[in-house]
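Suppose you are handed a protein chain with no further information: no name, no annotation, nothing but its sequence. What can you learn? This example shows the usual starting point.
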Amino acid sequence: MLKKILSKLFMDNSRKGFPFLAQQNLEIESNKLLTAKMIVLSNKLLKSDNIQDYEFKVFSQWGDDGIIQYLINIVSLPHKTFIEFGVQDYSESNTRFLLMNNNWKGLIMDGSSQFVESIKRAHYYWKYDLKAKTAFVTAENINKLIEEEKFEKDVGLYHIDIDGNDYWVWKATTIINPVIVIVEYQSLFGFERAITIPYKPDFYRTAVHHSNLFYGTSLLSLCDLADEKGYNFVGCNSSGNNAYFVRKDKIGSLKPLTAKEGYVLSSFREARDSSGKLLFLGGGDRQQVIKGMEVFNTRLGKLEAF
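A reasonable first move is to predict its three-dimensional structure. Written in C-alpha cells, the prediction is:
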C-alpha cells in the first residue's frame, strides 16, 4: 500500500501540464520523502533474499532507491559516502535519495556543464554535502577524478552508469575499494557470454549504432570482474539494467548469485530506427538489431561478432 501511495505521488506530479511554484514542488518532494521513509521501515519486516522485493523509487529511474536502502541497512559501512557519474541533471539518479534521506556525502559527475550548473543551483545543493563536477569519465581519468576529491578508500557506494564503457571504467578503478558497487549491464548480451563493447574513450552509443542498443557489458563479464576485485554478485533490479555487487568481506547474510541465477532481461523498449524514431521492440527482437556488431570477449581477450 505504501509503495502505491509513493507511486501515485510521483505520477500526480509528472502528469501536471503547468509549472508548479517552487514551494509546491518542495511540498510534493517532502511528501514523497516522508512516504519513502515509511516504506523503508516496512521493508525491514520483509524476510526475502531477493533484492527486487525491496524496490521503490523516489529519485531513481527504476526501483533502485529501495534496493539501496535495503543493502545499506544490512551491510556494514565504514563511511557513508557515494560516487556516481552520468547523472545528467540529477533529477533521476540512484544516490539522491541517499543524499536527502540518509544525509550521505557524495560526488556526482556528468559530461555536460549545463547539467552540472543546474545541479549547483538546486535547493538541495547547499543543504547537503554534495560535490558536482563536470567530467567525461574514461578509464584513463577515473582515478585522477576521484583522487582530486580526496575520498576515503572505503567508499560506501560506487555507481557506474555511462551507457558504454562501464566494464572498462570499473576495471580501471583502483584508487577506491567501495563496499557496494552498482554497474549498469546490457541485458541483450545475455548471461552466457562474457562480452563487452570494445573500449573507445569517446564512446557514444548513438554514434556507434543508431538503435541505441549497442553499449555496455554482459552480466557475466561484470560477475567475472567482480570476483577478481573481491566482490559477490547479489542481484539485479527488476527492470534489468542495474547489477549489484557487495565486497566479499562485507557480504554478511546476503546470498551470492551466479550470473544465470540473477540475470534479468530488460523490460524497456528503447530501440530506434535510423531517423531516431522509437521502434518499441521487445524481447529477442532487439538482439537482432545489433546482431553482427563487434564485441570484446573478456575471458578470451579477443574481438568476436555478437
